[in-house]
Amino acid sequence: MRFLDKHLRDSEKKTYVADIERRHGERLRRFLASRLRDRAVDANDLAQEVFLRMLRIEHLETIRSPESYLFMVAFHVLHQHVMRRAAIPESVEITALIDQIESGPETDPSHRAELDQRIARLHSAIEQLPPNAQAVLLLHRRDGWTLEAIAEKLGFSRANAAKYLAKALLHCRLQLGASEP
After folding, report:
1. Is residue 124 located within the same domain as residue 172?
2. pTM for the complete prediction?
3. Which domain holds residue 62?
4. Full DSSP string of 99-122
C-alpha cells in the first residue's frame, strides 16, 4: 500500500510539473536565455534543471503561486550557474612558466631576462595573497594535491578550497597581465 501511495504521489507530481511546463515553459526559457551571457549555454538545459527541482518538492500543494515559485527556482538555478562560471578563472600555469625557464635557450639573455621578470612578478603576486589562498594555490598547483586533500589538511570545506584557489588564480592572472606590455 505504501508503494502505491508513493507511486500516486510521484505521478501527481509529474502531472503537476508537466502542467506548469506546458503553461510557463516557453516564457521560462526566454527568461533564462535573456539572462545568459554565454550563448553557448543552452537555456533548455537550465530550464530542465528548474523542472527537476520542482519534481523534488515534497509538498507541491503548499505552493500558492506555481508561476512565481517556478521563476524563483529559475532565478536560483541561474544564479548558481553564473557563480559556478565566475569561479573558474583563466588558469595561470605555474609549471608551464617554470618549464619555459628550464627549456629556454641559455644563449639568449633577453629571453632569460623576460622569464626572470615574469617569475619575479608571479612570486610577488603569490606573496600578496592571503595565507589560505596562498597555501591552497601552492599545494594544488605546485605540489599536485587535490582540493579534497587540501581542505582536509587545512580544515575547511572543499568548496572553500575551490574558492581560495579561484581567487588566487585570478589574482595571479591579473598581476601578471597588469604588468605585461
Report:
1. yes
2. 0.46
3. 2-86
4. HHHHHS-TT-HHHHHHHHHHHHHH
